[in-house]
Specification:
Elements lengths: L8 H4 L2 E4 L6 E2 L2 E2 L3 H10 L3 E6 L6 H10 L9 E3 H10 L7 E5 L2 H9 L3 E3 L8 E4 L7 H12 L4 E3 L5 E2 L6 E2 L1 H12 L4 E2 L6 H10 L4 E5 L2 H10 L3 E5 L6 H5 L9 E3 L13 E2 L5 E3 L2 E6 L2 E9 H19 L28 E5 L1
Helix pairs in contact: 4-5, 4-8, 6-7
Protein name: HAD-IIA family hydrolase
InterPro entries: HAD-like_sf (IPR036412), HAD-SF_hydro_IIA (IPR006357), HAD_sf (IPR023214)
GO cellular component, one term: cytoplasm
Length: 354
């Protein structure tokens, strides 16, 4: 269930491990108010680490994108799944060992940084294979890499994300490539990126911090990754998670805290009062599950509505094994103030009976 924090999160945690797409930016543009929220967090003394499953872009290019958006970021603040994958290989290979790359620039730079030699020819006698997303990947490169994996070489995948954002909508991600190679070889890779722990471990190694907080918008990568790494997490609702996904979250995909956006870093997080009869209360909102559907009454801040609904729905799911219906539930603060899947766009006080 959601936790309480009587102080702003930036006073309780010393480093934020921030996902990027859906948290800091969406495509080429900043999430509204994200640069300002992050600037205030940095001024309060919180370290900011930008953690991405994207292995295609090296940290330098990611930092340049963030800086252009007004986000306080240096190259050394960015950690990618390519760097986590390179670390896994560096720990098992000797300096200068050749590693076959099914991928592009991000993996080449990450391997070189740790003293390994990236190659794309079987004639270079590679001792391991690493794979990651690259838009212009040649099929011949994939074929040669798959044959090397089939021969028994160690194989590390930067991530298993099924999709990647593109200007034309979601496209196939590295997870699709991993599935193809795994099907051909009958083998599975060691995975470096979220939701597995190596990427968070590499981030703390590089950025430091004693009390990390994972911040993300995806339940199956950011939040589950935090749980696997035994780290606390903050879910923000500026990305892909809507109400249907939130109320259906299994225990390992439930965040420690929930906020509309990155402003939650600078706020306390009140306790949702969960009563023995299955109801939940917070900030003027009262929620229950009746006849299998979530019902909400009261008024208050939009973020407290989300927190109350999440807690009452999770308790119902744990007790019955059934997801509570949210169809037709009015989401306060959404643009249309209507559909359950809409995302909140502001922090108004509203009244509702549903």
């Amino acid at each position: 269930m959601l936790h309480e924090s009587e102080v702003p999160l930036w006073d309780h945690y010393d480093v934020a491990l921030l996902d990027l797409d859906g948290v800091v930016y969406v495509g080429p543009d900043a999430v509204p108010d994200a640069p300002e929220h992050l600037g205030r967090a940095a001024a309060a003394g919180m370290r900011l680490a930008y953690v991405t499953n994207n292995a295609a872009r090296p940290p330098r290019r990611v930092a340049e994108h963030l800086q252009a958006l007004g986000v306080p970021a240096r190259e050394e603040d960015v950690v990618t799944s390519a760097q986590a994958a390179a670390r896994l290989l560096a720990d098992r290979c000797r300096p200068g060992d050749p590693v076959y790359v099914i991928g592009g620039e991000g993996l080449f730079e990450a391997l070189t940084e740790l003293g390994l030699r990236p190659v794309q020819s079987p004639e270079d006698a590679p001792v391991a294979v690493v794979s990651g997303y690259h838009r212009d990947l040649r099929w011949g490169t994939v074929t040669d890499g798959a044959i090397l994996v089939a021969s028994g070489l160690p194989w590390v995948a930067s991530n298993t994300d099924v999709s990647v954002p593109t200007p034309h909508g979601p496209g196939p991600g590295n997870g699709v490539l991993v599935e193809a190679v795994a099907r051909f070889t009958g083998r599975s890779p060691e995975v470096a990126g979220k939701p597995m722990p190596p990427l968070f471990e590499e981030t703390v190694r590089r950025v430091g911090g004693q009390r990390p907080l994972v911040v993300g918008d995806r339940l199956d990568t950011d939040i589950e990754g935090a749980a696997r790494s035994e780290l606390d997490s903050l879910l923000v609702l500026t990305g892909v998670t809507g109400l249907p996904e939130l109320v259906a979250a299994a225990p390992q995909q439930r965040p420690t805290y929930l906020s509309l956006d990155l402003g939650g870093l600078g706020e306390g997080h009140p306790r949702v009062e969960a009563d023995a009869d299955g109801t939940a209360r917070l900030g003027g909102w009262h929620a229950e599950v009746r006849d299998g559907a979530v019902r909400v009454a009261g008024d208050g801040d939009a973020v407290d509505w989300w927190r109350t609904v999440a807690v009452v729905a999770w308790r119902h799911l744990d007790a019955t094994g059934e997801r509570a219906a949210v169809d037709g539930l009015r989401v306060p603060g959404s643009v249309s103030d209507g559909a359950a899947g809409d995302q909140p766009g502001a922090r108004p006080r509203v009244s509702e009976v549903s």
